[in-house]
Design goal:
The structure is a homodimer of 284-residue chains.
Chain A lengths: L1 E3 L2 H13 L4 E6 L5 H13 L2 E6 L19 H11 L3 E3 L3 H4 L6 E5 L7 H4 L3 H16 L3 E5 L3 H13 L5 E5 L19 H22 L5 H13 L4 E10 L12 E10 L2 E10 L4
Parallel strand pairs in A: 1-4, 2-3, 2-6, 3-4, 6-7
Antiparallel strand pairs in A: 8-9, 9-10
């Protein structure tokens, strides 16, 4: 496995692979790799001939007051995970490589970035789309892999790639969960043992949502009330939002129909955790 | 010469050329080709092995009230010019090809798009950068060619390509002028004979600027006053701006020093005309 620290060196590595006819896969990450990331890498290894993992804690997607400074950066452990997972090249640039001067150019996806996390993290998605556009231009992958755990991010990046005719495919992989249902996240490590137990209520609330939809309940307000009740059973949970939206437009819906995204964001101690489920309710 | 109407077909043509090791050049245009465009094509033919000219009147760079509807679209004449100039493929998509649905994703370059034309055409540069990002992603050229006549556009596109790590080179070619100095533009054809005569005063005002700088005059306010006097000699000219700015930042400067851009925008009858000169004044 090669480790490239510069744009020139990753371009050289990928260029060589491409000239040999290899299909290039990219898994963009902020490091602190866990089994969620590993599932993305496994999907990439399965689909592609040359897999690049980028590890870059992107400053422009952190909102002031967030955990940019203390975000974990265990590079050696990450490299080991990549090596074991069959990655061909890691791209681990410095912030100066990616943002050598003042960044004046931003890629922004309107509308889809406004609800859900967009309301609480202004500028976050603009940072995500801009750095992904940069990474896509640097690595030029045939496929880039993202996780369904960040549902809004997945939808926003897919839309960016389509709107700007980016010559790559975006593949979204299922959320990986702990045995108690908690979605795996680099930020879970911020939790105390007590908070970690409470965190399981996030997925419990989403399961409640699925059960109610399965039972034919179509009133989203009713469902959200029950989801909030479950979250409120965990004393350390501070609800940021509980939303039931159209899975394509991310707009709130009054009644369950078609493809629905139920999404939750909470604060638990120092961590901000998000999770979601997709439900195809058909016509109800 | 091939004429591609769809994204798929131009990608196929370019893909074949690239697989043969050819260097790809792109000249993005809105059609209504003239000797200015031909000079860009000639530069592309000289530098590249496979030259694509895109012809697309991009609706998103027209501000409400501008000439989108009446902008000339002489496709057959344009194709003949391309054929004669040695173009390998023309990409002439419909608006529906480029904007198949609501476009939510925008590429925006901050700061550089605010002064000069940015003040008078809000949203114009966002349309330009977005469509260029799309065209670059569709054609994937090694080099894209633009004209110095649109000086702010050239600087904005260069900055976009650099900030987003676009894997291509941007080449800026000199402004082509009529014998009386008027910069060649598709919009010159809107002028009556009388207005056409007046239009020569735009370049006269820029020549005055260069003469004053050469004579050691450093007070930009003084220079601008003289430039305006020349423009006011032409009765049909309505001055939009006369600006002397730093050629990199596009910020107004009080005193001439280093690389300077003198830029003029005027209305003449139904036409909005712009022109500029670059002067390297060194340290003064």
């Amino acid at each position: 496995m090669e480790v490239a620290k510069t744009i020139e060196s990753i371009r050289r590595l990928v260029g060589t692979a491409r000239s040999r006819g290899k299909k290039i896969g990219l898994v963009p990450t902020m490091g602190a790799l866990h089994i969620g990331h590993i599932s993305l890498i496994e999907a990439a290894v399965k689909e592609c001939d040359f897999v690049v993992v980028s590890i870059f804690v992107n400053p422009t997607q952190f909102v002031p007051g967030e955990d940019l400074e203390k975000y974990p950066r265990p590079l050696e452990a990450d490299l080991k995970i990549c090596r074991n997972a069959g990655v061909d090249a890691v791209f681990a640039p410095t912030p100066e490589q990616i943002y050598p001067g003042e960044n004046l150019t931003w890629v922004n996806v309107e509308k889809l970035t406004e609800p859900l996390c967009g309301q609480f993290r202004p500028g976050h998605f603009r940072g995500v789309t801009t750095v992904c556009a940069k990474l896509f231009n640097i690595v030029a992958p045939d496929i880039a892999f993202f996780g369904q755990k960040d549902a809004q991010q997945a939808i926003v990046i897919k839309r960016m790639a389509a709107d700007l005719n980016m010559p790559l495919e975006i593949v979204i992989c299922p959320t990986v969960r702990e045995p108690d249902g908690l979605a795996v996240s680099s930020r879970n490590q911020y939790l105390t043992a007590e908070q970690r137990k409470d965190a399981a209520y996030v997925y419990k609330s989403l399961q409640k949502c699925r059960q109610m939809i399965d039972a034919g309940i179509a009133d989203t307000r009713k469902i959200a009330v029950e989801m909030r009740k479950i979250l409120q059973q965990a004393s350390s949970i501070k609800i940021e939002y509980v939303s039931i939206v159209d899975a394509e437009t991310l707009q709130n819906i009054d009644r369950i129909a078609g493809k629905v995204l139920a999404a939750v964001a909470v604060g638990i101690g120092p961590a901000r955790l998000i999770d979601n489920i997709l439900v195809d309710a058909g016509k109800q």
